[in-house]
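Whiteboard transcription, Tuesday session. T.W. wrote the structure tokens on the left side:
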């Protein structure tokens, strides 16, 4: 199962189309609240370039920034486009085809991108969130109460995602990694397959997770696999060439994200309202989901526990695990993963 699984995953990354990417933005986002906020740093009219941003429908600061139009306010002469992606795998494809400058992807997808055979020139520039119970293994049969009880069952998960990484870790810990059928599905497809009875379980994130839990239950979470030594994050990745050429943009972008994190942590109702507008999910549901992640300000991220040092080690650890599961062909040196973490912008913002 493992060898076939790896081949399918790699083939999907290398040859899949970009149909999961959908153009979006404030100008055509009818659910946006419309009100904008002041730029948290000095407005920069000198930047006139085009920046292609990729987001996912995950409740974090990226959607707050998007809804508030902060980047457009801070960089009034820039051309900024937002495109929606279904998972980290499609973000990796876009980096590989040079059709995206920055995009949200999970730490497992980032580790995969930086490892053989992909070896994509990418930098991790921000930790959008530390994943907790927001990514969980949902099971439909009420008689199954442990991961081990899923032996012989069909489990859906988006391949090359943080949920995929957490699921593999949970299955390995339970000793059943060779005794289940893993099915590569994007979130919308998982919801449909669950309703149709085509899968027995799924490891997935919000808001799809809440949909499954209407008639299912959780047997383990990303918070639990993190405690077992397999933490996961949602990161912002950027093409290395773009980072080198645009340090000022990265500083402004980071200041906007730092503002959004402050909103989530100090004014969660206002932040949830903005995220709700982007996702079309009730504000009360977003408030609950915000409690299932951890959100870090720039000063925390610039420290040794994250961008300052540990994230590079965590990416290397993720790559080691993916290699052990036949998910990648080779692991780079520890120095390569450390060099793939860009802390300069977080350091500058935190020093303000």
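and on the right, the sequence the group agreed on:
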């Amino acid at each position: 199962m493992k060898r076939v699984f790896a081949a399918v995953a790699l083939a999907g990354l290398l040859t899949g189309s970009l149909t999961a990417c959908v153009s979006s933005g404030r100008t055509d986002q009818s659910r946006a609240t419309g009100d904008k906020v002041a730029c948290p740093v000095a407005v920069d009219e000198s930047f006139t370039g085009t920046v292609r941003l990729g987001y996912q429908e995950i409740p974090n600061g990226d959607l707050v920034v998007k809804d508030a139009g902060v980047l457009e306010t801070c960089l009034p002469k820039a051309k900024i486009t937002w495109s929606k992606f279904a998972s980290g795998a499609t973000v990796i494809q876009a980096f590989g085809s040079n059709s995206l400058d920055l995009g949200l992807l999970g730490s497992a997808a980032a580790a995969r991108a930086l490892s053989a055979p992909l070896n994509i020139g990418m930098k991790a520039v921000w930790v959008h969130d530390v994943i907790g119970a927001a990514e969980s293994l949902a099971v439909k049969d009420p008689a199954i109460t442990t991961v081990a009880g899923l032996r012989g069952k069909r489990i859906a998960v988006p391949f090359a995602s943080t949920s995929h990484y957490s699921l593999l870790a949970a299955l390995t810990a339970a000793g059943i990694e060779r005794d289940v059928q893993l099915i590569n599905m994007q979130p919308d497809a998982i919801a449909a397959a669950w309703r149709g009875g085509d899968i027995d379980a799924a490891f997935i994130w919000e808001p799809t997770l809440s949909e499954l839990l209407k008639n299912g239950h959780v047997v383990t979470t990303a918070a639990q696999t993190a405690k077992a030594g397999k933490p996961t994050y949602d990161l912002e990745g950027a093409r290395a060439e773009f980072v080198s050429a645009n340090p000022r943009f990265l500083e402004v972008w980071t200041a906007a994200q730092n503002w959004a994190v402050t909103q989530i942590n100090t004014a969660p109702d206002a932040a949830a309202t903005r995220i709700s507008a982007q996702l079309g999910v009730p504000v009360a549901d977003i408030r609950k989901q915000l409690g299932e992640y951890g959100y870090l300000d720039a000063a925390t991220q610039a420290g040794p526990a994250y961008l300052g040092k540990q994230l590079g080690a965590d990416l290397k650890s993720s790559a080691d695990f993916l290699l052990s599961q036949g998910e990648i062909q080779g692991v780079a040196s520890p120095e390569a993963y450390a060099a793939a973490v860009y802390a300069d912008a977080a350091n500058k913002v935190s020093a303000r």
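Someone added at the bottom: The CA atoms of residues 108 and 162 lie 5 Å apart.
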